[in-house]
Predict the 3D structure of the following.
Amino acid sequence: MIQRDEINVAYILALLNQIAQDQKQPRPRNPRSTRPKKLKLVFDLLGSDVKLRSKRELIEKFMRENIPRIPSGQPVSEAFNEFWTEEKTKAIREIYETEG
């Protein structure tokens, strides 16, 4: 199960990388743009896999807050790892403050 979870997260990060690169390009006037399809696929994956549901909120937050700010050429996985580390640190700090 852990291996499958890692594969799904890696696949989602690959899709997010494609979405980030698409955002850097001028918007195509083509109604068959793949960006909406990729976004839908990410949301479908997050909703369909029980293991990923627990990560859904964080991945969606990452998409909203970080995807538009990722510099061209920076891998999404690198930005995601930084985001994930920050979020874990915040959560640990919150538990520490709550529990004393």
Remarks:
- The longest helix spans residues 76-99.
- The chain has a mean pLDDT of 80.
- Helices lie at 2-24, 35-48, 50-65, 76-99.
- Residues 16 and 76 are 7 Å apart (CA to CA).
